[in-house]
Specification:
106 residues
Length: 106
């Protein structure tokens, strides 16, 4: 699970890094999109929740593009490095699904 999710789904004292994350199934939602990338990999993207938006906004990133990349990483489980390595057409597929699932950052 990505660190952003752990920050808001953690159990116990937020300053205690060793606490096990609490699994909150209801927060993951049931709506997921399957996205096939040009290299054949299949990525699942879940519908964004309020805690996703709050987590990304609280990171203090420099602009909306960086926030969008972090949000897509959070929703797919891809790392920022994996997203940086995507072909632009694959990123645009992820971006399109993000918007269709109700994601936006303004």
């Amino acid at each position: 699970m990505r660190e952003v999710q752990q920050e808001f789904m953690g159990k116990g004292d937020p300053d205690q890094k060793d606490s096990a994350p609490e699994v909150r199934q209801e927060s993951l939602g049931k709506e997921r999109k399957k996205i096939t990338l040009s290299d054949g990999r299949v990525v699942m993207m879940r519908k964004p929740k309020v805690f996703d938006m709050r987590a990304v906004k609280d990171m203090g990133l420099k602009d909306a593009f960086e926030e969008e990349i972090e949000m897509i990483a959070n929703l797919t489980g891809l790392t920022r490095e994996e997203i940086d390595g995507l072909d632009l057409d694959d990123y645009m597929k992820l971006q399109k699904e993000f918007v269709e699932l109700g994601g936006f950052l303004k």
